[in-house]
Write a structure and sequence with these properties.
Structural class of chain A: alpha+beta
Helix content of chain B: 25-40%
Structural class of chain B: alpha+beta
Number of helices of chain A: 6
Strand content of chain B: 25-35%
Helix content of chain A: 25-40%
Strand order of the largest sheet of chain B: 3-2-1-8
CATH topology of the domain at 18-114 and 160-225 in chain A: Jelly Rolls
Strand content of chain A: 15-25%
Shape of chain A: elongated
Radius of gyration of chain A: 48 Å
Order of helices and strands of chain B: HHEHEHHEEEHEEHHE
Distance between the termini of chain A: 37 Å
Largest interface: A-B, 55 and 75 residues
Oligomer: heterodimer
Shape of chain B: elongated
């Protein structure tokens, strides 16, 4: 059998954090002499279905080893034709992976499923099989009592089917549909997987798959050192020592670099200070020189090129007086400015002091109030302790009633702690949260998401409808928010009908039974009525059931018996466009 | 949950005072107290409610065969919002428009025993103040009538009566106070929400009909129900399939009143067949005797099954 590569649906990487797995770098850098963590195969088991068509739910169980460095399981689905499954991984009541879609092979991933022979729609001509009811022909020829079918049984078994283990390993690697889970990495806090715990894959599909050639391969691996545990531990210890040495060395170098940087900064700062000082000295010298120059030559401001103006003694004195007045005004303005600043500063300081004093006062008052409150409380407590009948302290009934009510309160709290499911114990927040969750959880019931189908029903195969008819097993179909069982049927080739190779009976069948469908199914499914079938000895009632039409416009032509000479020939029901 | 709670008696006292003052003009405060069996009001009340034992979680399912009070045109989400319950408050559907389409109403409740421990005071200070106030009012009224300048007999009689009642009221003010402690065990029910759970369906005329969270049935449910009534197929089975959390079922009994109510509401052409035929000699149309427009059943589930919502994965 040729096995095509299938789509890789989901892969979770395995591997522990590098600090815990020295040398574990996927095997690319670790040499053969360096101890490191490697993947060791624990088991590789191949399973196949026991039926030609199936939709599950199948179950595969694997015990966890509790390996120190982690484990991983992979589910591979190999097929040479297009299949599609939904897989869930669970342990106990916890779901580790939920409803992961697995389809393949990759080359035909988006095409139609190769399961035509397993579906009801493929019936070109034929009818359904189902429960056999021994005949009790009615002489009156009237319709008999209403019959109901298996669907009347509301509760169906959900016990999963177990697959058959067969020898063999994976035929192709890395290209088939695969679902992987490794732990402890992927284990959630609530899903700690202990040694001995059972991990269970549940595999199912919405419609039956052609299981011919489909193989489920479960690969269980564990992470372990490539040397003995003692050697690996010694190696880990040496690695840890080296790591500590490295860390110490790095810290020493960091400190040295820090000291060096600090010294450099200090030198730079000193140099800049010297420069600044020299610059200030130069500016001071320049200012002194300018002042001296202005005192010596009063005509220095006379524009060049003009005739030099000469001043009289009186004019010079006047100028000198004006300059002095100007200087005095400047000095006074400077003094006023300094005085204003001083006052402002004093004001600010006084304000700050006032605020500080107020703050201290308030703190003291608060402290005093607290002390008074504590004292009052203590006094009240002392008073109440000595006045057990005081209703001001203990309410109506005094301490006796108070103590009783306190005990009841504690009892109520303890009860609610132990019974969180009781609504009378819920807080306001819990009510609000629950109301929100109700609206989420109680989504439109008609759009309920399907879970795995129930286990397949056991069917009694009715007598063959024609010489070359082929049995198509029943399966579950999701319709109207419920799983509906579509009974198995004999698929009759048109050539058999044309050639008269269908069942022949010596007499006419009894009157048909009146049946009522047990389920209200809308839309896609069609109710196919039952009919009488001859098994060479007696009449067998083949009960009606729902079936899936090949198209929306297809109608069901019911089975009937035609008289051909001295015999009655079955014309099986079939779909007509 | 229950907590320390001193009930405010001020408002009650004020109301009592107002009542007493009102009674002064009629029968008098003391007389009214005596007529009412001599029951004083409670003061300084503190109560603790202690749950006792387990609760029963019940889903009440009501079928309206001829149309449920579903508000027409209301969006499902807002309807659902409106129908979620509040703590200790219960909910009241605000639906108004009747539609002739069968539907369900669901109500999830928990009921269980609980004991209320209550300490309180009788004839306390508020009582005394109220009585004193009533005494003053009645005495003033009596004086006004008795000291009238030109009293009539009726005035004098009323004044005397008020004076006597004022004396009685004055005595009430001096009743010694009494502290009481009472424990009362009762069964209380608490509505949780009014959403129909997932997996709920009903079996009508041999067909299983899905129900959405607001109780809406499939579109052709009225036809199935008509068939069910016409073929007299008996009770309607109710199923809930909650997967691994369990499966529950019950029955909606369709008695004569329900059948007749459905036939009348839907103007069934053969209404006489479903309703009690009229006695000979009376009108042809049946008299409007007792008809029932709904039928209810209860599903008892394990506590927490429906009240603890599971988030959608």
């Amino acid at each position: 059998m040729k096995t095509h590569s299938l789509a890789l649906t989901l892969l979770f990487l395995s591997g522990l954090p590098s600090c815990a797995r020295p040398g574990a770098t996927g095997g690319t850098t670790a040499t053969s002499t360096t101890p490191h963590i490697t993947t060791h195969a624990v088991s590789e088991t191949t399973y196949v279905a026991t039926t030609e068509c199936g939709q599950g739910p199948y179950a595969i169980e694997i015990p966890a080893l509790g390996a120190r460095y982690g484990e991983e399981i992979e589910l591979h689905i190999e097929s040479d034709h297009r299949v599609e499954f939904t897989a869930t991984l669970e342990t106990g009541d916890s779901e580790l992976l939920r409803d992961k879609r697995m389809s393949g092979p990759k080359v035909a991933r988006e095409g139609a499923l190769d399961n035509q022979r397993c579906l009801a729609q493929s019936t070109a001509a034929g009818s359904r099989g189902g429960d056999q009811v021994p005949s009790a022909p009615s002489d009156s020829g009237q319709a008999e009592q209403i019959e109901t079918t298996d669907e009347d049984t509301f509760v169906h078994s959900t016990a999963p089917l177990h697959l058959q283990a067969v020898p063999g390993t994976r035929a192709s690697r890395g290209e088939e549909a695969m679902l992987g889970f490794s732990w402890p990495e992927q284990s959630l806090k609530d899903h700690a997987i202990q040694a001995g715990a059972t991990l269970r894959f549940r595999i199912w599909s919405m419609v039956p798959n052609d299981m011919q050639g489909v193989r489920f391969v479960v690969v269980h691996t564990k992470q372990a050192p490539n040397t003995s545990q003692a050697e690996y531990d010694a190696y880990l210890a040496s690695v840890e020592e080296a790591r500590i040495r490295d860390a110490e060395l790095r810290e020493k170098r960091r400190l040295e670099a820090e000291i060096l940087a600090r010294a450099r900064a200090e030198i730079r700062w000193e140099r800049e200070a010297e420069k600044r000082q020299r610059r200030e000295e130069r500016e001071e010298e320049r200012r002194v020189a300018l002042e001296a120059e202005s005192r010596i030559d009063v005509d220095v401001s006379v524009p060049s090129g003009k005739k030099r103006k000469t001043f009289t003694e009186a004019q010079l004195r006047e100028r000198e007086r004006a300059r002095k007045k100007q200087a005095e005004r400047l000095v006074q303005a400077e003094q006023r400015r300094i005085e204003n600043e001083r006052r402002k500063e004093e004001k600010r300081i006084r304000r700050a002091e006032r605020a500080e004093r107020k703050k201290r006062r308030l703190a003291l008052e608060a402290q005093a109030r607290l002390i008074l409150k504590v004292q009052a409380k203590a006094r009240r407590k002392a008073y109440c302790d000595s006045h057990l009948k005081s209703t001001k302290c203990w309410g109506a009934g005094g301490y006796k009633a108070h103590a009783k009510l306190e005990a009841m309160k504690a009892k109520a709290e303890a009860f609610c702690l132990a019974h969180p499911a009781q609504a009378r114990c819920w807080s306001q927040e819990k009510w609000q949260e629950n109301n929100r969750l109700y609206l989420l959880a109680y989504e439109d019931n008609l759009a309920t998401k399907p879970g795995p189908p129930p286990s397949p029903l056991t069917e009694d195969v009715p007598p063959r409808f024609s010489v070359n008819s082929v049995w198509r097993a029943g399966y579950w179909e999701w319709a109207s928010a419920q799983w509906v069982w579509l009974h198995g049927t004999w698929q009759v080739p048109q050539s058999d009908v044309d050639s008269g190779l269908t069942t022949q009976a010596p007499s006419a069948p009894p009157a048909p039974r009146v049946e009522a469908p047990a389920l209200a199914v809308r839309g896609t499914l069609v109710w196919v009525p039952g009919f009488w079938q001859w098994d060479s000895k007696a009449w067998i009632w083949v009960a009606g059931s729902y079936q899936a039409p090949p198209s929306a416009t297809a109608t069901w032509s019911p089975a009937n018996w035609a008289v051909r000479g001295s015999v009655h020939v079955l014309i099986p029901g079939g779909w007509k466009q | 949950m229950s907590s320390i709670k001193f009930e405010k008696t001020t408002m009650r006292a004020m109301a009592m005072t107002a009542l007493c003052l009102a009674l002064v003009s009629a029968s008098g405060c003391a007389t009214s107290w005596a007529i009412n069996g001599g029951k004083p009001f409670e003061e300084k009340v503190r109560k603790e409610i202690v749950p006792e034992g387990s609760v029963d979680e019940t889903l009440h399912i009501t079928l309206f065969p001829a149309g449920a009070p579903i508000a027409a045109g209301t969006a499902q989400a807002s309807t659902a919002q409106a129908s979620t319950a509040q703590p200790r408050g219960g909910t009241v559907a605000t639906h108004t428009t009747l539609r002739n389409i069968p539907s369900l109403q669901c109500r999830l409740s928990q009921s269980g025993d609980e004991t209320e421990h209550r300490s309180y005071r009788l004839y306390g200070s508020t009582w005394k103040k109220t009585a004193a106030l009533a005494f003053v009012a009645e005495a003033a009224l009596a004086a006004a009538y008795l000291l009238k300048s030109d009293p009539e007999v009726a005035d004098t009689a009323f004044g005397a009566y008020m004076a006597a009642d004022a004396l009685g009221t004055g005595v009430l003010a001096f009743f010694p106070r009494r502290d009481r402690f009472r424990s009362t065990r009762s069964r209380e029910s608490l509505d949780i929400h009014q959403l129909c759970p997932p997996g709920l369906n009903i079996e009508v005329a041999g067909r299983r009909i899905s129900v959405d969270r607001n109780g809406k049935l499939e579109d052709n449910a009225d036809e199935y129900l008509r068939e069910h009534f016409e073929r007299s197929l008996g009770p309607v089975a109710v199923h809930i399939n909650l997967g691994q959390r369990g499966q529950f079922q019950s029955q909606l009994e369709l008695n004569k009143g329900v059948t007749c109510g459905w036939a009348r509401s839907t103007s069934h052409p053969d209404v006489n067949r479903f309703c009690q035929p009229p006695p000979p000699g009376t009108a042809q149309i049946p008299a409007p005797t007792k008809t029932i427009d709904r039928v209810t059943t209860m599903l008892f589930v394990t506590p927490g099954t429906l009240s603890q919502p599971r988030p959608v994965p």
